[in-house]
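step 3/5: co-fold with NDP
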Amino acid sequence: MIKVGIVGGTGYTGVELLRLLANHSGVSVEVITSRSEEGVRIDDMYPNLRGHYDLQFTVPDVEALSECEAVFFATPHGVAMKMAPELVERGVKVIDLGADFRIKDLELWSQWYGMEHTSPELAAKAVYGLPEVNREAIKGAQMLACPGCYPTATQLGFLPLIENKLIDHRRLIADVKSGVSGAGRGANIGSLLCESSESMKAYAVAGHRHLPEIKQGLSEAAGRPVGLTFVPHLTPMIRGIHATLYGKLKDPTDGLQELFEARYADEPFVDVMPAGSHPETRSVKGANICRISVFRPQNDDTVVVLSAIDNLVKGAAGQAIQNMNIMFGLDEAEGLKHAGMMP
Ligand SMILES: NC(=O)C1=CN([C@@H]2O[C@H](COP(=O)(O)OP(=O)(O)OC[C@H]3O[C@@H](n4cnc5c(N)ncnc54)[C@H](OP(=O)(O)O)[C@@H]3O)[C@@H](O)[C@H]2O)C=CC1
Ligand SMILES: CC(=O)N[C@@H](CCC(=O)OP(=O)(O)O)C(=O)O
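step 4/5: write tokens
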């Protein structure tokens, strides 16, 4: 059994890690942290986990965490970069669900995240954990940066087109909707029922923190800098990301369906749907899967890709476990084989 620790166990991605790891045959959760809920049993706070864990939340402590073989950080940005270096030095494999190690250009990271990066050496070694792109590097990673939720849905949707240079890389458009759990469990007015239900709005149109991350990934795939307009929206659902992606085809032809099917044929967690299908967020709810479909409306030169994930699963905790499985040489799908919840 691989001994696992989770820093930030009371948040939405932390409790999702616990839910998924409860069905993983190869790990044992030994440490779960929360500063505000110290001493509280996991199942007193999260009754869905009754019968699965005997643990109590403890305050984060590097000594206790370094007894683990893998430590997940399900914490706001700025936390992992302070604690991870010592853990890595002690041989622990660290998997960060936050944003500290995703962006390679640390000046750019500081501009978007409003703080100095305190761990540049480790950031240089960190591997970006999108298995559909980086599987080989992930196998040897000691410090793993899990992609953000919007970047996962957006990159997986655009990759086949970008890698094959089929669209104008300077004019990509990503119109992406998120459920409210994407904002985390912390109290904030925008997440209140009366503020977020029965309404929908765009936000951060001028610039969102996931913009540089998506551009970094797609630019690498394109072999040159891409131009992207990314507009996130808040929608009245708890879980889910739905991305509608637009590109201008250089040479409009048939074959996009086959191209997408071939690109993801060996990917256990990307489902290219039959031509003409429209993926729904509810079909991926609770499951570690990205459902994709591709269209060329009116046989014109615009390609439209639809990409749906659960922000807490393929967008966070599920992808983190997928990465852990790869890092430890386990079956990549262990603990992640269940279907989504419908309706
Ligand atoms: N929600 C989502 O859909 C997604 C989130 N992410 C990223 O994952 C990370 C976690 O997100 P989410 O679960 O939503 O966040 P939440 O706000 O729901 O939870 C944050 C957790 O971190 C702990 N925490 C907060 N500050 C500190 C600190 N300084 N030191 C140690 N622990 C701390 C909190 O517990 P306590 O304060 O009691 O210690 C809590 O358990 C974030 O970086 C987020 O951006 C990534 C993809 C998707
Ligand atoms: C709906 C909502 O508020 N979503 C969050 C996504 C946060 C997230 O996942 O951010 P990380 O990059 O830290 O992982 C947002 O727009 O900030």
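step 5/5: annotate
The chain has two domains: 2-147+314-327, 149-310.
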